[in-house]
Amino acid sequence: xxxxxxxxxxxxxxxSVIWAVAGPVIKFTLGGFDPLIFLxxxxxxxxxxxxxxxxxxxxxxxxxxxxxxxxxxxxxxTSTVALGLLFFGFDETTAIDATLISATGPLFxxxxxxxxxxxxxxxxxxxxxxxxxxxxxxAILEPVLRxxxxxxxxxxxxxxxxxxxxxxxxxxxxxxxLRNEVHPLTATNISFWVGFLTLVPITVIFHSPTEIIxxxxxxxxxxxxxxxxxxxxxxxxxxxxxxxxxKTIEVGEVSVFGYLYPxxxxxxxxxxxxxxxxxxxLIGAAIIAVGVVIAEYKKSRxxxxxx
Length: 307
What we know:
Low-confidence stretches: 300-307
Radius of gyration: 19 Å
Mean pLDDT: 85
Largest sheet: none
Shape: globular
Strand content: under 5%
């Protein structure tokens, strides 16, 4: 195997573990912070660390103004919009449900490639995607089917789904930026700077400065550790590694690692957060797994043959 491709796979495996653990961490930390305050606090830390990296490594922007505008749009979508939807979704649903729905991101990215990049999808892949989307629908409707959290949980699942759909656009934008010589660290830094600058005014509208400071000062130290994990590991580190890997391999290959999220997140959510696995969740997860195997099996064989 090409050593650069192998290195990208290893980086993505690290990112997958970090982002899988991030789901339960988000759910836990939301017990101490409002979603907007949590996000702004997180971006403040990540933006500050990003500035430190600029002092030591420097900062390079592409000369093409169109690429600069795309970088700013990418930063806004991947931080304020995608993570905003994700955090508010986690606030209203379980970490187990949210992680399972998030794991279907690769399928939506393949679908985005079909519609926007005119990529070819075989009949087998279409059948597999259709089956997996059926499982996703069951997972989204899980709160209603089990009559536990009712429509509140449904709303949270739909917000998580919205985050995944925005993630399709950001994955494609990131690939375009990296192809146009935007450094992986630069793409990461822009995301957190834009996220912090756009979230501050929104947060201040809904929460007074006094309320923000009081909530941060009175929070349990464990909640602060959750914010630090999201800012430094799930933020600066994971996004930089993700951008580095995406610079080397195709978008579709990068997204496949999203299927690993439930493997790490579900046991953690059950043991740490005491969440329960319901029958509708198991049915949805099984259907998604069948669809993914059908959709990815032939693609996997083709990729191996082409190496």
